[in-house]
C-alpha cells in the first residue's frame, strides 16, 4: 500500500480493543481479520480509513467532520472510534458514493454519533430545518437512486432504517457543498458501477474520492442489474482522469491530486489512467469477439482479460474474473 511520499504522509492503525493507536509496520503485522482499521493521512486535514468495508474519506475542519461513505454496519463502532481519535469535532455530513452495503451499512451508527448542522437553534432565527436534520444526527448526501435503493415503497420493509437514508438527494449532474472552508463537488456518474454513483472532489485539499468506480484491488464491479454499464464505467473513469491533476512539470516532487479509491491504496492520476486504459482495452476485445459471433462461453474461454488477470482477477470470492467478463458482455449486448 502506498503510504509514504512526504514527511507528513503517514500511516496509523487503530488497534481496536487495545484502546489506542499502534503505528507503522508493527501495527500492520498485528492486523488480523476485522481487528484493526488502517488510517492513512492523505493531506494535513484529510485521512482515509481502510478496513471498514469500502474506503472512508475523512475531511476535518472548523465546521466539523465530513465523511465520504461510512463503511459496513459491522465496522461502524470502530469507524466512530477512529474518527474520535482523529478529532473532537462532530461528524456533520456523510456523502455516499453508492448504495452498496460496504459503503452505506455504517450510515445509521455513524450519523447518530454525529450532530446535524441543522439542529434547532443552530441556524439563527427560525431554528433548524426538521425536514433535513435527520433527528439531530449527521446529514447524509446521495443521489436519488441511492435513497430509492436504501428505502422502500410504502408498506414494504426497507433495507435500512430511515436515519441511514440520504437526507439531501439530487438528480442533477452535481451537488455542491461548502464546508470547512472548502468547496466540495459531489458529481453524479450514472450507469457506471451502478446507476446511482457519485465521485467527490475536495477542491482545496485536492483529493478525489471515487467510490467503487475505481478499485485498485480488482476489475471494476459493474452491476448491470442496477443500471451499471461498461461504457458508463469508462466515461466515469475518464471523468476521474480529467479531474485529477498530475505533478507536472515537476513529477519528481510530491504533489498532484490524491485519488481515494473504493478499495485499495491511495493513488494518483497515472494509476487512474492505467486502470481506465485496462478497462477500455478489455471492452474493445470483448466487443470485437461479439462482432465475430462468439458466444459468452467462447469469450470466457478466450480469456479477454489476458495480461491483466494476474493483477486484477480472481477465481473466487464475490467478484471473479468471469463475473467481470459476463458484465461486459451483457452490457455490450443489451445496447439498443
Tell me what the structure shows:
The protein has 336 residues and is α/β, with parallel strands linked by helices. The chain has helices at 24-30, 76-86, 101-104, 107-113, 144-150, 230-243, 269-291, 296-302, 309-312, 321-333, and strands spanning 11-15, 20-23, 36-43, 46-50, 56-61, 64-68, 91-95, 139-143, 168-170, 174-179, 182-189, 197-202, 207-209, 258-260. The strands form two sheets. It has a nine-stranded mixed beta sheet, with helices on both faces. A five-stranded mixed beta sheet has the order 10-11-12-13-14. Strand 3 and strand 4 (46-50) form a beta hairpin. Helix 6 (230-243) packs antiparallel against helix 7 and helix 7 (269-291) crosses helix 10. It is globular and about 60 Å long.
The level of helicity is 25-40%
SSE string, helices as H and strands as E: EEHEEEEHEHHEHEEEEEHEHHHH
Unreliable stretches (pLDDT < 50, length at least 5) are 1-34, 124-128
Spatial strand sequence of the major β-sheet = 2-1-3-4-5-6-7-8-9
Mean pLDDT: 88
Report the oligomer.
single chain
Largest sheet: 9 strands, mixed
Query: What radius of gyration results from the CA coordinates?
Result: 20 Å
Q: How would you sum up the global shape?
A: globular
How many DSSP-defined strands? 14
Give the distance, in angstroms, between the N- and C-terminal Cα atoms. Answer: 41 Å
Summing up helix and strand content along with how strands pair, one would put the structural category as: alpha/beta
Amino acid at each position: 500500500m502506498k503510504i509514504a511520499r512526504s514527511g507528513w504522509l503517514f500511516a496509523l492503525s487503530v488497534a481496536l480493543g487495545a484502546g489506542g493507536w499502534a503505528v507503522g509496520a508493527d501495527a500492520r503485522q498485528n492486523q488480523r481479520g476485522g481487528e484493526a482499521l488502517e488510517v492513512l493521512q492523505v493531506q494535513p486535514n484529510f485521512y482515509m480509513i481502510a478496513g471498514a468495508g469500502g474506503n472512508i474519506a475523512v475531511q476535518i475542519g472548523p465546521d466539523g467532520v465530513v465523511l465520504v461513505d461510512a463503511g459496513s454496519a459491522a465496522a461502524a463502532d470502530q469507524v466512530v472510534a477512529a474518527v474520535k481519535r482523529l478529532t473532537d469535532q462532530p461528524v456533520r455530513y456523510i456523502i455516499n458514493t453508492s448504495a452498496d452495503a460496504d459503503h452505506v451499512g455504517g450510515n445509521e451508527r455513524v450519523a447518530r454519533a454525529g450532530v446535524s448542522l441543522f439542529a434547532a437553534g443552530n441556524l439563527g432565527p427560525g431554528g433548524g430545518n426538521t425536514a433535513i436534520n435527520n433527528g439531530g444526527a449527521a446529514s447524509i448526501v446521495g443521489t436519488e437512486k441511492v435513497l430509492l435503493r436504501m428505502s422502500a415503497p410504502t408498506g414494504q420493509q426497507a433495507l435500512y432504517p430511515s436515519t441511514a437514508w440520504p437526507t439531501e438527494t439530487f438528480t442533477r449532474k452535481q451537488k455542491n457543498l461548502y464546508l470547512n472552508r472548502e468547496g466540495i463537488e459531489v458529481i453524479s456518474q450514472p450507469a457506471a458501477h451502478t446507476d446511482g454513483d457519485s465521485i467527490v472532489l475536495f477542491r482545496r485539499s485536492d483529493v478525489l474520492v471515487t467510490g467503487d468506480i475505481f478499485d485498485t484491488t480488482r476489475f471494476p464491479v459493474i452491476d448491470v442489474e442496477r443500471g451499471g454499464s461498461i461504457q458508463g464505467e469508462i466515461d466515469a473513469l475518464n471523468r476521474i482522469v480529467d479531474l485529477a491533476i498530475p505533478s507536472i512539470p515537476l513529477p519528481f516532487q510530491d504533489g498532484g491530486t490524491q485519488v481515494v479509491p473504493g478499495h485499495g491504496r491511495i493513488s494518483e492520476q497515472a494509476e487512474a489512467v492505467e486502470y481506465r486504459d485496462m478497462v477500455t482495452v478489455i471492452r474493445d476485445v470483448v466487443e470485437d469477439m461479439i462482432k465475430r459471433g462468439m458466444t459468452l462461453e467462447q469469450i470466457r474461454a478466450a480469456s479477454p482479460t489476458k495480461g491483466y488477470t494476474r493483477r486484477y482477477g480472481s477465481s473466487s470470492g464475490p467478484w471473479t474474473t468471469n463475473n467481470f467478463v459476463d458484465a461486459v458482455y451483457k452490457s455490450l449486448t443489451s445496447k439498443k
